[in-house]
Amino acid sequence: MPDAEDVRRAALALPDTTEKVAWNMPTFRVAGKMFATLPEDETSMAVRCPKEERDELVLAEPGKFWIADHEAGFAWVRVRLAALEDAPELRDILADSWRQAAPTGLLDAHPELGLPAAD
Fold first, then answer.
1. Is residue 11 part of a domain?
2. Which of 42, 77, 78, 104 could form a disulfide with 49 if both were Cys (CB 3.0 to 4.6 A apart)?
3. Residue 7 has what pLDDT?
4. Nearest to residue 44, comparing CAs of 66, 59, 28?
């Protein structure tokens, strides 16, 4: 089961990622734009997720994903770390969130991450 340190390592391994404490919790940013947080007691993480996909994830796996009340209007979803199967799943979720926040030039510079090239 991944923990907060696994989240930190996986997030910081992504290009141009920094960690910054905001709202009394660790947040992870790419080129200054937040893509993940470790809220509350660090047993979960919040990541970017388009609202349509987020709602589908929550319905499909409510034991793993949920929406915090104060984030309902935003494209974020919470992930229970204890519900993740392994480190690769954690990395995939963080990488997907990173891609949503990263600028196009950074996405284009890292094709090894399986990122779509800009049109």
1. yes
2. 77
3. 97
4. 66
